[in-house]
Amino acid sequence: MTAPERARFVLDPAVRDVHGESARLREAGALVPVEVEGVRAWAAARHAALEAVLAHPDLSRDVRHWSAEGRRALRADGSLAPIVLARTMLNAEGEEHRRLRGPLSRVFSARRIAAMRPRVEAVTAEFVDRLAGLPPGPVDLRREFAYPLPCEVISDVMGIPRERRAELTGNDHVLTTTRGTPERLAGARAGRDAVIRETVEERRRSPADDLISDLVALEGAELTEGEVFDTVQELYVAGHVTTVNLITNAVRLLLADPGQLDLVRGGERPWSAAVEEALRLESPLRHFPMRYAVRDVEICGVTVRKGEAVLACFAAAGRDPGRYGQRAERFDVASDPPPHLSFGHGAHFCLGAPLGRLVGEVALSALFGAFPGLALAKPPDELDPVRSVLALSTTSLPVLLGGTSR
Which segment of the chain is annotated as a signal peptide (predicted)? Predict the structure, then answer.
C-alpha cells in the first residue's frame, strides 16, 4: 500500500456504534486510510500496529514533521488542533521531551502516588457522602461523582486554591465537552487560563508544598516561565479527563454484568482487575492524534511515507481478537488479560497512569461498598455516547443508589 490518498473511512464524532466502527477498521488492515475532521491519516487500529506505531523511533509527535498539505487541512476550530499544535511535553521529542518530562517523573513516581492514597480515600469519602445526601431518584453518577472526584484530586496534587476550583472545573467542563458557541468556548478557555496563571503567580510569591510550586522552583534553570504555564495547564487537563471516562465506563460495565461485579465485591478479584479490564475494553480515549513519519517507515507491511500522519486508535486496539482472543469483546475480570495500550507505550507512556489507576480503584471500592443496591437507571444501550473522535464514554450515567450500607 502507499499513501492514504483516498480515505476508506470517515471517522464520525457522533457515531453511536464506536465498537462496530472499530471492528471494521481492524478488519480493513493493520493501517487503514481514514479522514477525521478533514485530515487524512493512517489509522492504527490493530493492537500490533498500534504498539509498533507508539514506539517507533521514526514516527514523531512533533508537528513540524507533518507534510504541509496535511497541516493545511487541519481545522482551527476542530478538536484535533489544540492537541496537534500544543508546544508542550505532549508533542516534544528526544532531549526536549526528556527535559520537560524529567521533573514530572519525580512527582508521579509509583512511590509518591502510593503515598497519596490516604488523601484520595478521604476525598472519595467526601463525594460518597454527597451522593448519600442527594434526594431519592435517579442520579447522574458521571456529573455527581466520576467528574468532580478526579478534578478535586488533581487540584490537590497541583495546589489549585480551593476557592478557585469551582471556577476552574466549570470552564474546563465547557471545553472538554465542547459545548456552546465559539465565543463561549473562547471565554471558557480564557477563564481556565486565568485561574492557572494567577495560581502560578501566587506560587512565585508564596511557594507551598504542591506540584505548581515545584515547577515554579525550576524556572530559569530547567524550565522557562512559558513552559511552566503550559505544563501546569496540560497536567490539569490530562490529570482528570481520562479518569472521568475510566470511572464512568467501569461503573457501567460492572452494573451491566452482576456476575463480574460479584467477583470483585466479594473479594475474589481485586478492584484493580476491574480497572484494568475497563481500560482495555472501554479505553477512555477513542482515537488520539497524531504521529508523523520522519522518513518512509514500514509498519506491519504498510509503507507510511515521510510527512504522513498516523492516528492512534486505542478503542479498537483494546478489543483486537488477534491480541485478546475470545475475551476481546467481553468484560471479564476473572483472569488477567495481556497488557493493554490505553495509557500508551514507549517514551510517551502516560505519566499519570499510577494516579489514574489509584483514583479508579479507590472510587470503585468506595462507591460499591457504600451503595450495595447500586443499579443502572437506564439500559446501557440507551445511554448517549460522548460525541468526540477523542473520547470514549457516555455523556451521563443515571443510576439508582438504593440506599447506603452505613
Answer: none
d(CA 240, CA 344): 16
Q: What's phi and psi for 129, nearest 5 deg?
A: -65, -40
User: Do residues 30 and 46 lie in contact, with contact meaning Cβ atoms separated by under 8 Å?
Assistant: yes
Residue pair 197/230 in contact by the 8 Å Cβ criterion: no
Taking only the tens place, the pLDDT of each residue in 271-328 is: 999 999 999 999 999 999 999 999 999 999 999 999 999 999 999 999 999 999 999 9
Cβ atoms within 10 Å of 335's Cβ, excluding its own: 9
In this structure, what are the phi and psi dihedrals at residue 43, rounded to the nearest 5 degrees? -100, 120
Query: How is residue 183 written as a grid cell?
Result: 465565543
First to last CA, the chain: 62
The pLDDT value given to residue 400: 97
Q: Which three cell numbers stand for residue 262?
A: 460479584
Angstrom CA distances, 23 to 10, 18, 160, 175, 313, stand at: 14, 9, 41, 30, 11
Domains of the chain and any CATH numbers = 9-400 (1.10.630.10)
Helices (H), 207-320: 211-216, 225-238, 241-256, 258-265, 271-281, 314-317
Structure confidence by residue, pLDDT tens digits, 96-147: 999 999 888 877 888 888 889 999 999 999 999 999 999 989 999 999 999 9
CA pair distance 323, 69, nearest whole angstrom: 35
Q: Residue 388 carries which side chain, given as an amino acid letter?
A: S
The helix/strand/coil state of 293 is strand
Amino acid letter, residue 242: T
Cβ(365)–Cβ(123) below 8 Å? no
* Grid cell locating 306: 515521510
Cis peptide before 158 (omega within 30 of 0): no
pTM for the whole thing? 0.94
What would the grid cell of residue 120 be?
A: 484520595
Q: Can you tell me which residue has the cell 488477534?
A: 322
